[in-house]
Design brief:
The strands form 12 sheets. This protein has a 6-stranded mixed β-sheet, with no helix packed on it. A 5-stranded antiparallel β-sheet has the order 21-22-49-48-47, with no helix packed on it. It is about 0% helix and about 50% strand. It is mainly beta. It is elongated.
Length: about 600
């Protein structure tokens, strides 16, 4: 598991949430008690409720619970309160249940004789901080083989436990796994399902005028609660929601206005994964996942292009328990079989405690990387500086800091600085890392750009300068280099003359071949994607939106017009038979450029 130092331990780096779909590991030891997370999915809301669930209460719900199921004499059901620093054990004792409490500051178990309604077989329990009480789901045997479930509120004092039944109903479903949770406002949730079943039922409870518990919402969704999924570490405890389908990207065929499928085109149907970017690494495509917001707490992560999430981190809300501190994953990347991310801890009240930590691993293990490889001190974090972009290969890692745009490279514990006084002037943009070779556009102004590069251990130098023309939109996949060269800026982002230029990628200038002109274009676009022998970009002009794709081999042009209902935004990547763009109304849309017929010669 990822270990975050100091106050930044509030960042939940556990992968045992509904976002990760991984089975629990056994043997994790708790080093501090904070909270439980039952991740019921970011689409948790009361579809049938009169009172909708507020968005800030519909993500991971902070709770204290474990689930009991299966054997005739179940193990104790444990409930933890970080606020009160008490651990309760609800233990089966014949036909009834006894309550014991453990004060964490003085670890001595106390027996709490029950008062009021005796507890039956406990199915699940949780602690509610707003009213300082336990909520227990239990069952009692009725006539014949009938059973009744009850929702019971238990107040625990120093010497006893008083139980009050809030609701009672027949056990009519075959569910055998249960969980209870309360949100910060005190609303109560019940999740139930079968240990090997495909569905989970989520019920939200409210109170009537007599303070009885009444269901106010119901949601049935795919998934399985994993009863053995209790994990403990320095962040607290986590209950797994095992759901291999939840969060997966469902790629569906694009259809035109009359419902006809568009050959070679597919789009993501759902928006719950939160695709914000993508990386191509050899034959693999990795998705940059982002959902939520800083105000309610974001979930960021890395996923395969089928939606299988390999790493996920849940950030605390911007205005949490202490609004003067904040932890966030500000950048992450995949490349060369490796992955990296940075965590920024800001302390606005004591700036000397602010830090940034860099973690490096493989895509499959980055979510559990135990230690950071570098700590950036407060002197680096000061003046509102953060790390907003990362690039990585098998040999090198590069990062860019804001607001000054400084570029740094890292390898084997050593750092170099590529920008600043005494280096090539210009604000870096469009950075690419190939092995130990770094290339970027250096912007002196909107009309004066050069292509700059550096090798590990060597200073930055100019790689290509099209002077007097302006270079823009550089890209490479390690095989081809391609860019735009422009004359006569019009002041609106377009030029009187724009051309595509290309050359084979070369690591050293001595072996670089002379660039060649590919085609003349009418450039008014987003940045292009270069790869697989193509350069592709979205045209921003009047009339129907479209993607223009040029072959770097013969200069032929192909045009992709998105089907009705799809809106194209910036490109993510280009490969030989796969070009992906950001979409609006869909998170991503991709197409096979080889299935597009070449446009007629003008």
């Amino acid at each position: 598991m990822t270990v975050l130092p100091g106050d930044c331990g509030r960042l939940d780096t556990e992968r045992a949430t509904s976002e990760t779909k991984r089975a629990p590991r056994q043997g994790d030891e708790a080093t501090a008690w904070e909270r439980l997370l039952v991740a019921a999915g970011d689409d948790l809301y009361d579809r049938y409720a009169q009172q909708p669930c507020p968005p800030e209460q519909c993500n991971a719900i902070p709770v204290t619970l474990t689930a009991a199921s299966g054997p005739a004499t179940p193990p104790p059901v444990l409930v933890l309160s970080a606020r009160r620093r008490v651990l309760w054990a609800l233990e089966q004792d014949g036909a009834s249940t006894r309550v014991r409490a453990l004060d964490l500051d003085q670890p001595i178990w106390r027996e709490l004789p029950p008062a009021g309604a005796p507890l039956g077989r406990v199915l699940a329990a949780t602690y509610s901080a707003p009213d300082d009480a336990l909520y227990v789901l239990d069952e009692l045997a009725g006539p014949g083989r009938s059973r009744h479930a009850r929702l019971v509120r238990v107040e625990t004092g120093p010497r006893d436990a008083t139980a009050e039944v809030l609701a009672r109903w027949p056990r009519a479903t075959p569910h055998d796994v249960f969980a209870l949770a309360t949100d910060p406002a005190g609303a109560l949730y019940l999740a139930s399902g079968r240990a090997h079943g495909p569905l989970v039922a989520l019920v939200r409870f409210g109170r009537d005028r007599r303070e009885r518990a009444v269901p106010t919402g119901l949601l049935v969704r795919p998934g399985r609660l994993v009863p053995e999924g209790l994990r403990a570490n320095e962040h607290g405890l986590t209950l797994l929601l095992d759901d291999p389908r939840e969060g997966a990207v469902e790629w569906v065929a694009c259809t035109d206005a009359v419902g006809t499928e568009v050959p070679g085109c597919s789009a993501s149907r759902r928006r719950d994964l939160g695709i914000s970017s993508a990386w191509v690494d050899g034959d693999d495509v990795w998705l940059d996942m982002l959902r939520g917001s800083a105000l309610v707490g974001r979930v960021v992560g890395i996923a395969r292009d089928d939606g299988t999430i390999v790493a996920a981190w849940r950030e605390p809300p911007l205005e949490g328990d202490d609004p003067s501190v904040y932890c966030a994953v500000t950048a992450k990347t995949v490349g060369g079989g490796r992955a990296a991310f940075v965590v920024h801890y800001s302390n606005w009240r004591e700036s000397s405690r602010s830090r940034i930590w860099l973690y490096v691993g493989t895509p499959e293990t980055i979510g559990e990387t135990p230690e950071w490889v570098h700590e950036f001190p407060a002197s680096f974090v000061s003046r509102d500086r953060t790390i907003h972009d990362l690039w990585i290969s098998a040999e090198l890692l590069a990062l860019q800091a804001s607001p000054d745009g400084s570029l740094y490279t890292y390898r084997d514990g050593e750092w170099t600085t590529l920008t600043g006084r005494g280096t090539v002037e210009g604000l870096p943009r469009g950075t690419v890392v190939v092995g130990d070779h770094l290339l970027w556009e250096a912007w002196l102004s909107l009309e004066r750009l050069r292509l700059v590069h550096a090798h590990w251990g060597s200073p930055a130098t100019v790689y290509y300068d099209p002077m007097p023309r302006t270079l823009y939109g550089f890209g490479t996949d390690g095989v081809d280099l391609a860019w735009f060269e422009n004359d006569g800026p019009r002041g609106d982002g377009s030029f009187e003359r724009s051309e595509i230029w290309a050359a084979p990628y070369r690591r050293d200038l001595a072996s670089m071949e002379a660039p060649r002109r590919v085609a003349r274009v009418d450039l008014h676009s987003t940045r292009p994607a270069v790869g697989g022998g193509w350069i592709a970009w979205r045209r921003i002009t009047e009339g129907p939106q479209r993607v223009e794709v040029f072959s770097l081999r013969d200069g032929s042009r192909r045009t992709f017009v998105p089907p009705g209902g799809y809106v194209i935004d910036e490109p993510y990547y280009a490969r030989a038979r796969d070009i992906m763009f950001r979409g609006a109304g869909t998170e991503a849309i991709r197409f096979d450029p080889t299935l597009l017929p070449p446009d007629p010669e003008p």
